[in-house]
């Protein structure tokens, strides 16, 4: 009997140790994704090693570096839209930490998502300014991560242009959400404020009027088509992914402004449902995506005006449903 008591005491002690080691805590949160972001920002100090030097982790005070603080805020706004409006915890649906690096390379005229993190250049000051100045560009890059974890649209041709367009859509939604703007109040520009003062233009792209964002001696004219009649067949830019994205971009703008109200509530919900719903193939073309948005509108909103408005928006840009 004595032996048994000792054995029980040892078992209890082991259980206490296990508890101290934090096992019950881990168990209690399993299956409950976090409701707040975990952002970590790095400074590349004009080099190209990623992620660079850590400068601000979640919950830490703002730094002296405005690029760091803008990226931190932009990642936070994107997390908030996904979580509060669509019930998704981060880009993987499971609280994936968000990593961003600023001051990448020297005079780097772009921003990108490398499969694991966001990267932002400072621009050369001649054509482009610091890419963190535009919250829609920050959200655009993060949305590439959302697409990677969901439909994983192939980055070429029509699925590539859809991949680009979905990033612009969520970029615009995060900007409108952070400003509290309705669809009809919004400018529907992507990257407003990113063009250097000497460039004749207003933004990188216009979802409302693709092809009109800039017209400049150095940059040339904004080459985006606004309808299928002007669809661009090219070998460049992975088959024109940043060009033909103008077509689905305008379809989204037409839908959101026709419905009115806040674009993320109905138009955005439909696009989110298609992107994350599991039906969208990674090699989907425009027409396949368009049909899925009509179905998603019916599933989500039933016999209201939404599905009809979706069909009309696609029809106006020449995509059949
Ligand atoms: N800024 C561009 C984008 O996110 C970079 C690229 O072409 N991948 O689309
Ligand atoms: Zn992109």
Distance between the termini: 78 Å
**What fraction, in percent, of the residue positions are helical?**
40-55%
What is the CATH-assigned architecture of the largest domain? Orthogonal Bundle
The CATH H-level superfamily of the largest domain is Neutral Protease Domain 2
Domain module count: 2
In DSSP terms (H or I, runs of 4 or more residues), the helix count works out at 10
Distinct small molecules = asparagine, zinc ion
Mean pLDDT: 93
Largest sheet: 5 strands, mixed
What series of H and E elements makes up the topology?
HHEEHEEEHHEEEEHHHHH
The radius of gyration is 23 Å
Specify the CATH class of the largest domain. Mainly Alpha
- Shape estimate: globular
- Find the CATH topology of the largest domain: Neutral Protease, domain 2
- Measured by DSSP, the beta-strand proportion falls in 5-15%
Record the strand order, biggest sheet. Answer: 2-1-3-5-4
Structural class: alpha/beta
- What is the count of β-strands? 9
- pLDDT < 50 runs, ≥5 residues: 1-7, 9-20, 22-28
């Amino acid at each position: 009997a004595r032996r048994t008591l000792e054995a029980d005491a040892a078992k209890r002690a082991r259980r206490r140790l296990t508890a101290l080691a934090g096992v019950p805590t881990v168990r209690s949160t399993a299956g409950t994704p976090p409701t707040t972001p975990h952002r970590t920002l790095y400074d590349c100090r004009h080099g190209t090693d990623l992620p660079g030097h850590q400068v601000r982790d979640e919950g830490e005070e703002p730094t002296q570096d405005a690029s760091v603080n803008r990226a931190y805020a932009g990642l936070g706004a994107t997390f908030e839209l996904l979580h509060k409006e669509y019930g998704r915890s981060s880009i993987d649906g499971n609280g994936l930490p968000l990593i961003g690096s600023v001051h990448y390379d020297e005079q780097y005229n772009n921003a990108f998502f490398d499969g694991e993190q966001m990267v932002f250049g400072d621009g050369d000051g001649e054509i482009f300014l610091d890419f963190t100045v535009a919250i829609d560009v920050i959200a655009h890059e993060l949305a590439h991560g959302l697409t990677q974890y969901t439909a994983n649209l192939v980055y070429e041709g029509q699925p590539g242009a859809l991949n680009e367009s979905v990033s612009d859509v969520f970029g615009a939604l995060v900007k409108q959400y952070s400003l509290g703007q309705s669809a009809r109040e919004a400018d529907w520009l992507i990257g407003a404020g990113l063009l250097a003062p000497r460039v004749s233009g207003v933004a990188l792209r216009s979802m409302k009027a693709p092809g009109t964002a800039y017209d400049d001696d150095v940059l040339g004219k904004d080459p985006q088509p606004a309808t299928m009649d002007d669809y661009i067949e090219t070998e460049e830019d992975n088959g024109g992914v940043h060009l033909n994205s103008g077509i689905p971009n305008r379809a989204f703008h037409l839908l959101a402004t026709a419905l009115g109200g806040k674009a993320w509530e109905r138009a955005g919900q439909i696009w989110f449902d298609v992107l994350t719903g599991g039906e969208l193939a990674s090699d989907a073309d425009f027409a396949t995506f368009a049909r899925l948005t009509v179905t998603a509108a019916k599933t989500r909103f039933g016999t209201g005006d939404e599905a009809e408005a979706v069909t009309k928006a696609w029809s106006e840009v020449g995509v059949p449903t």
